[in-house]
Amino acid sequence: MQVYLDNGAGKPVDPRVIEEMNRINSEVYGNPASFHSKGFDALKIIKESRAKVAAYINAEPDEIFFTSGATEANNLALIGGANRNKKRGTKIIISEVEHISIINIVKSLTRQGFSMEMCPVDQYGVVKLDELEKLVDDETLLVSIMTANGEIGTIQPIKEATEIAHKHEALFHTDATAAMGQLKLDMKELGVDMLTLSSNDLYGPKGVGALYVRKGVRVSPTMIGGGQEQGLRSGTENTAGIVGMAKAAEIASMELDEESKRLSMLRDMLIEKLLGAIPESYLNGHPSKRLPNNANIRYSFIEGEALIMSLDDEGIQVSSGSACAAKTLEPSHTLLACGLKHEEAHGSLVFTLGKNNNSEHVEYVVEKLPGIVKRLRAMSPLTPKELR
Ligand code: PMP
Q1: Best of 74, 101, 197, 201 to mutate for ligand 1, by most ligand atoms within 8 A of CB?
Q2: Catalytic residue among 51, 277, 324, 326
């Protein structure tokens, strides 16, 4: 049996999206900037797509700026936002559990005169709002806290954090990549200034994303060129990718309620059965404020990488942390921020469910994993006798 449980790192593209993209690639190939009918066709379909993506988050079409993905949207929000709003101050606050792209962007900004502060999280990875209150002051330019963490699944109190930033007239950005297709995102309700969107997380193509920028918020471009996307993101638009993202967003809005209920049930079944079947296993992340598709469980005395390889031999694909940091072999900064020790953080597995998973898949993992853990523990000198 093949059981793919790494949907947080990469999702299959929805067949309805593929069909739409194939049509665009073969029929709507004009440059949207061209002054003829083929160009107008492309311009029209991008306009329609922008409206669909805007509707998905209850925003206005001219608040959506298409990019090459979440990383670029994060760059535009933080570098473009910081450079354009220097007068507000130089302090940038992020949480300790941000995606590596956010951490590295802000580190790069510290070499240009900005300062970085990290807001701590509790044992579940939830941002401590009282600590945020203490950190935000009149020197604060920007606060960036992710909507939800794709590795431990924890959902953040974004509305409350935004209100804290706004009390001091600081801008608020949130990276919603991991929340895409899982949580309702309503820009009128959340009140954030900028929000990063990713297409693949909606079962759209990879390499496409967008930044929502609330009307009136000023951002400098980071990509300079022909002035596409209202001058904020130059470069000929990726028409098929944008249409694919919009189709994926349209499908996600229709299916969100039912699918998130279904995934939450599968997730809870997976967590309950695995914790019950394997001694010395613990849930990482928040028990209830959690993404519907995420289960992150740690196993004492073993390495996540050894577990991943053994599971892959059985046709099960999972990950040990954020795919973007997988090659470093460092313990997850997210788990360390939750207070875990290095050796505890190393033995964690992230299961991210998706549209193609069902209860048979959960049963298959529950059948295979306990034996693998037992075998690996038997080989580890750290394992106490009673667990061997
Ligand atoms: N932010 C978060 C929270 C992510 O999980 C990822 C990776 N999926 C990114 C940003 C970067 O996305 P991409 O590699 O598609 O640019």
Answers
A1: 101
A2: 324
Neighbours of 133 (CB within 10 A): 15
Compute the distance from residue 99 Cα to the ligand 1 centre, in Å. Answer: 7
Q: Cα–Cα distances in Å, from 185 out to 64, 309, 364?
A: 14, 36, 33
* Rounded mean pLDDT, 57-77: 98
Find the 381 Cα to ligand 1 centroid distance in Å: 37
State the distance from the centre of ligand 1 to the C-alpha of 383, rounded, in angstroms. 35
Residue-level pLDDT at 369: 97
Q: Which residues line ligand 1 (CB under 6 A)?
A: 69-71, 74, 99, 101, 146, 150, 175, 177-178, 198, 324
314-323 average pLDDT score: 86
Length of the chain: 388
Contacts of 327 (CB under 8 A, 6+ apart): none
Residue with tokens 């209100």: 163
Q: What is the CA(90)–ligand 1 centre distance, in A?
A: 25
Class of the CATH-defined domain 3-9+256-387 = alpha beta
Kindly report the protein residue whose alpha carbon is nearest to atom 14 of ligand 1: 71
324 given a catalytic annotation: yes
Domain boundaries, the chain: 3-9+256-387, 15-252
CB-neighbour burial class of residue 355 (10 A; exposed 0-12, middle 13-18, buried 19+): middle
Arithmetic mean of pLDDT, 333-355: 94
Find, among 243, 257, 259, the residue nearest to 16 by Cα: 243
Q: What integer pLDDT is reported at residue 66 of this predicted model?
A: 98
Check whether 244 has a pLDDT greater than 90. Answer: yes
Q: Is the pLDDT of residue 325 over 90?
A: no
For 15-252, CATH number out of 2.60.120.260, 1.20.1560.10, 3.40.640.10, 3.40.50.150 equals: 3.40.640.10
Task: Name the pLDDT band for 323 (thresholds 50, 70, 90).
Answer: low
Ligand 1 atom nearest to CA at 200: 15
Identify the pLDDT of residue 388: 78
